[in-house]
Structure formats: structure tokens, C-alpha cells
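Before the break, one more example. Copy the sequence into your notebook; we will annotate it together after we see the structure.
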Amino acid sequence: MAINKQKTKEIIEEIDQLFNQLVGNINPSIKVWIEKNLLGPAFEEIKKLIEDSRPPKMFLIGRSGHGKSSLINALANKHVAEVGDVKPTTYQSIPYLIKFEESYSSWEIIDSRGLFESTSPNSLSNIINDNIEENKKINKNNHISSKNDIEQILTEEIIKYKPDIIMHVISAPETRNLSNDLRLVSKMMTKLNKTLGYKIPLIIVLTKVDTLENPRHWPLENYPAKVGILKEILDYTSDEILTVSKTPIDLNELIKGYEIKDSEDITAIIPVCSLKDDIWNIETLIDFIGQKLPENAVLEFAQAQKRKKLLRKLSSSLIIRFSSIAGIVGLSPLPISDIIILTPMQILLVTLIGGLSCRKISKETFLEFLSASGITVASGFTFRAVAHQLVKLIPIAGSVISGTIASSGTYGIGKAAEAYFFEGKIKKPIQYKDEWQEYQNNIKQIENSKKLV
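Here is what the structure looks like once it is written out:
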């Protein structure tokens, strides 16, 4: 299962009802204050994460036969795109809306026509008859006539689709011969980013690494000579062709690729093998894409294939945001003495963390965490009954809730839920008290350093 927008909406409605039940006899001014400063911001965070989420858009460019279609299939982990051995299979850009129904998610991947083709797709004759405007960009030999035409066509397509990520796909054995392709796309992206007013991350994906040296020498890590060849290609691409500074994505395995820090257009160089039975380093590429996507495109990207690493990052971010919101309770104009007021937020947080771990968004998911924490709740429970049990997880000293207690308690419950749902570990919220304090101290140091600048 996964996070479902409709189920999330239903849970939010139940949480809202729970809040109204818990504050029945509370000072009306405190109720209004809590709704405005605690529940309101918490619901807004959920809206940004879930209701505003959308499919990620990824745009692939490169020569035909270099593995764009195979890469699409490898990324999606299922057959989506037609694979052609030599001849181009696409003339105009083809958008694929890939649905992952069990995960309530979709991706949009745009496969562009191959660069610098001397032959046209099998379906070109039909396209020529139907598309006069596109014919103007093709000469009598049925291929795009100049680099300027290529740059113009790609620029128009990218502006049309507004992708979140662009991947320039190049067959690893052909890298040295296609240095002009790399320079052309780099130059095009520099101008395009200036035109758009923002930077679209560009990842150079080196495909077909299995065909380096002897194709039978696989898996790659078992053949040092092949590893050395790939390392040389990566260094040549970054140092000689693109002349950029690089940082290994994985310090333990340098051949996993480089992140580029000082380029206006290129974000990374990542080698892969997209063959169905010999998939290699696709996980690195997927993780890197997830890091560079806009916030509203990350959920559907990560949830589509249950990418726990990316989903846990979303979970950790949500915990910090909810904990910071809970800390605002210390600013209440009137003292709040009952910590149960915070439980609607905390129940919602735990339930969402369960959803991000690919469980069902439901009361049962929250109950699973509560039971694992040693708290027994009778069958047929309500959120109101659970709220009183949840308080047992937060140690309190004194009669008035402080911002520190509220934030650290919420953080502890969130992290304990995260440890349980993502790792199957049982931890007490109090174990995270120092971790939250350290986080807050780091934030204060950053804020103070900004003031000094």
C-alpha cells in the first residue's frame, strides 16, 4: 500500500473531529489559537506533501540506439518503451505516462528523437504527411540538417514539456567519439536555463557499460580491467570533454558516478546498465533523481516503486516540520496544561509515517505502532481513546506544556514511529530527546552565522 490522497483526506477529517472533542471545555481563545498556530500549519504541511503532489517529469535526449528506451524500462521496472537496435524508433518526442496503480503514483517520461540521425524512424513517412511544420526542419535526405536545427528542436520540446529532470543518454563505449554531442547539449542547456530563469538539472547517463571491453565479463565488479576502463571514461568525460570539477557520488565505489558542483548546466555523470537481466547502478541514478526533483514531485517518484531511502527522507522532513510546529505551543498567550491537545497532530504524523513506509493510511496503522510500543488498546477503538494512551509515551514534568516538551515529545514519537515502520525496531520517544536538542542547536548556529554575514 501507499499514501492515498482520498484516505489521507478522510484521516484529516477524523483528526479534526478528534481535536474538537478533546477541547470541548477548553478556553475558547486557546482553542482558536491552537487551530490557527498548530493544526492549521500541520494540515498545510500535509497539503504540500500529498494534495499538491504530482507526477515527476523526466526528459531523455541522445542518439537512437544508445539505450534511451531501455533506460525508461529500467527506471520504471517494467516494459514501457519500444526498444530499437539501430534505427530510430522515435521522430517526435513521445511522452509516456507510466502508472503505478498499487502505489497511487504516476511518472511522465518524455523520449526525444535521436540526435544527428542519418536515417529516420520507420514511421517517418506517416509523420511527414501529417506534419508539414516539422518537415521544414528535415532536408530531402530525411535527417535534421544542422546543429542549430537540433538545438532549436530540443529547446522547443523542453520548453513545451517543462521537465523536472533532463537525462542525456550516451552509450559508454561511444563517449570519446561523441564529445561534440556533450558540448552541444551543455551549451544548449546554459542558454535554455537563462531563458527559463531557472536551472533544470541535467544528468549525463552513460549506458551499456556491460559492452565495455568483453561483454561476457559481468558482473562489472568482478573484472578489474573493465572497472578501470569505466573509471577512465568517467574521468575523461568530466576532465577533458566538460572540464568540470567532480565529487564521487559513492566514496566507496568511484565508478558509481560523479556529482558536478561547478557547472551551470550539468548536475551529474552516472553510468548504468539497463539490460533487464543485468541491471546495474539504476538505484544510484534513481536516488540522485529523487534528490534533484522539486518537492511536489518527490512523493510520486519515490512511492511508485517503494523507494524506502527517498520515502524515509520525506518522513524525516515531515517529523522536523511537525515538531517545530508543536514547539509553538510555548508561545500561547495563555498556559496550556494538557498535553493531550497535541495528540491529534501526533496521531496524524504517525499515520503518515506509516503511509510513507508503504502501509495503509488508516487507524489500524497507528494502532500497530501503539501496540508495538507496549500500549494496549481495545478492539473497536476510537482516536479519542487512543489519544489518552499516546500521552503515556511522553514523559512530562510540571503542569504547563513548554515548547521544548511539545517539540521534543513530537519529535520522539515521530522518530520512534519511523524506526518501527522503516526498520522494524522498537524505540522509546525519550531516546531521541538529545538528538532533537542537537538539531535545534545546529539551527541556532546557522541562524547566528547568517546574522554575522
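The CA atoms of residues 92 and 279 lie 28 Å apart. Strands lie at 57-62, 94-100, 105-111, 165-171, 202-207, 246-248, 258-260, 266-271. Try to locate both features in your own notes.
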